Amino acid sequence: MGGWYPWNSHLKGKRLIIMHIGNEDGFVEAAGDVFESNFKGDYHDYLNTERFEKWFENNLPKLGDNSVVVVDDAPHHSRRQEITPTTSWKKVDIQDWLRSKEIHFDEDEVTIELLKKVKETKSKFQTYAVDELAKRYNVEVLRLPPHHCELNAIELVWAEVKWHVARNNASFKLKDVKKLLLEGLQNVTAEKWRDCVQYVAKEGDEFYDRIDEIIDTTIDSLVLNVDDSDSACSDFESEDSYSSVDDNR
């Protein structure tokens, strides 16, 4: 979900930003939002949370019950429903927050002690805003590990669309780029989407198999090191005991 057409120097800093969503049946009908930006930084900085969440909520009813939406860790996907206290907060504000959550504390506790209570309980209150929106429509949000966009099918779809634009872009005028962009979206068939989803599903299985293998190897290594350490310790104690006996003779 989400995407963008990269800025090109010929467009004098302008770029097109895309938000869309799709599945094995193709792009969700009338879900796309393409808009223009003059912002020269990372598109994540321009695509603000408010705009994304509004678009997301408008399209949730189109997805159907028990749908799963795959997202990465982009800032506009990751706004917390509630802000929790940090070291920059005043003591009285931390106390007010704890009271609002019915978390017991003593009035004479210092700030560091209050923050410890916050740390122990804040996970209960740090839900993501888009996750809560999705729950209203019986939709689940699946968050990918950081830096693993290859596990999201839409990244493959965007690559196809961008290739269409790059291959046919002759004028570098924004209106022509937008036309090519819309053509590229139209050219992505349901069959293409299915291929991308199936490919990513396979990649996901292999990814988590590798994770399991790494975990198993690490655990085996730890067990081996502990066993070696115990053995060395036993040998040392045995030799020390023998020496003591020898000294007593």
Number of helices: 8
> Roughly how many Å apart are the termini?
81 Å
Instruction: Work out the helicity level.
Output: 40-55%
Order of helices and strands: EEEEEHHEHHHEHHH
Shape label: globular
Oligomeric category: single chain
Our Rg estimate from Cα atoms comes to: 27 Å
Average per-residue pLDDT, rounded, comes to 82
Low-confidence stretches: 1-9, 229-249
How would you sum up this structure in a few lines?
This protein has eight helices and seven strands; from the N terminus they run E-E-E-E-E-H-H-E-H-H-H-E-H-H-H. By secondary structure, it is mainly α. Helix 3 (91-100) packs parallel to helix 4.
Question: What would you say this structure looks like, in words?
Answer:
The chain is mainly alpha-helical and 249 residues long. It has a domain at 3-81 and 127-215: Ribonuclease H-like superfamily/Ribonuclease H (Nucleotidyltransferase, domain 5, 2-Layer Sandwich). It has helices at residues 43-46, 49-59, 91-100, 111-121, 129-135, 153-168, 174-187, 190-248; strands at residues 3-5, 15-19, 22-23, 26-27, 33-37, 68-71, 140-143. Strands 1-2-5 form a three-stranded antiparallel β-sheet. Strands 3-4 form a two-stranded antiparallel sheet. Strand 3 (22-23) and strand 4 (26-27) form a beta hairpin. The longest helix is centred in the last third of the chain and has 59 residues, at 190-248. The chain is globular. The model is unreliable at 1-9 and 229-249 (pLDDT under 50). This is Tc1-like transposase DDE domain-containing protein. One of its GO terms (molecular function) is nucleic acid binding. Residues 43-173 form the Tc1-like transposase DDE domain. Pfam families: DDE_3.
